[in-house]
Amino acid sequence: TSRVEYNDYQARQRINPETGKKYASLSELCDYRARQRSERKKNKDLSRLIKENLKKLNKNQSWLAEQLGVSRQLVNLYAQGRNIPGEENLSKLFAVLGIKRKDRPKSIDDLF
To answer: Backbone phi, then psi, for 54, in 5-degree steps?
Structure first.
């Protein structure tokens, strides 16, 4: 079997803590983990920061993605709180959103 099939099999052996049932697929497990990440305080705070600053600048996620040199889908994950940018993209993100250099944290942990 392929690695994808094996990973799917492994996911189907795990129990979903919300339902008490096994996951139906690897994608269901990934969706659950993404929802869990989006509930973390620092993810929520970064999400709010991105949305508020885009609104202040009267810009959208596509514009931000172009400025950062990443896909619109990745910016959407940041804005939903499902993903956190690495240090390099975090620095670019703050610069593009107009967060002053002296106030700019070096990592996501410094921010929150």
So the answer is: -65, -40
Question: Residue 34 and residue 5: Cα distance in Å, rounded?
Answer: 21
> Two tokens at 103?
């106030």
Give the N- to C-terminal CA distance of the chain in Å, as an integer: 44
Q: What is the pLDDT of residues 84-107, one digit of tens each?
A: 888 888 889 989 998 765 555 555
pLDDT of residue 108: 59
DSSP assignments along 20-76, one per residue = SSB-SSHHHHHHHHHHHHHTSHHHHHHHHHHHHHHHHHT--HHHHHHHHTS-HHHHH
- This prediction has a pTM of 0.68
Task: Decide if 51 contacts 79 (C-beta within 8 A).
Answer: yes
Q: How far, in Å, CA of 103 to CA of 92, rounded?
A: 14
